[in-house]
Amino acid sequence: MTVVPHTLHLTARYPHEHLIVVTVVGNIDLQTAPALRTRTAEIMRQEPCHVVLDLAQVGFCDSSGLSALIGIWHAARAAGGSLGLADVPDRLLRMLAVTGIDSFLTVHTTAADAITAITASRPAPLKS
């Protein structure tokens, strides 16, 4: 039997004003998805911004994780910001495509690509 750890570590950095990159380490599942959603919402409440989730170190994501990503996307848009995903593992990319979520969640090859795209094309959030 495989033992799946239910820990999720988040590290946030602000490479530009109104832009935060959150590096996610661990599995996004039924046990950890609420923490991802809650912590990201707390960050956005402190300063409305554009959010990039760097998912390179995510080993697994289930439907609860997909739901959390959709919730974060809604919260970012409601705050006048956006959500981008970076370094998305292949398995998660396939899940995003199969479910159609990739039609509204922007996926970038790397966090650096996401930062460049967001700073070049998006104004700062309107709400404060």
From TrEMBL:
Domain STAS residue range list: 17-118
Instruction: Quote any Pfam family the record assigns.
Output: STAS
List, alphabetically, the CDD domains matched.
STAS_anti-anti-sigma_factors
InterPro entries documented for this protein: Anti-sigma_ant, STAS_dom, STAS_dom_sf
Q: Which PROSITE patterns match?
A: STAS
Under NCBIfam families, the record lists: ant_ant_sig
Q: Which PANTHER family match?
A: ANTI-SIGMA FACTOR ANTAGONIST TM_1081-RELATED (PTHR33495:SF2), ANTI-SIGMA FACTOR ANTAGONIST TM_1081-RELATED-RELATED (PTHR33495)
Family classification: Belongs to the anti-sigma-factor antagonist family.
Q: What is this protein called?
A: Anti-sigma factor antagonist
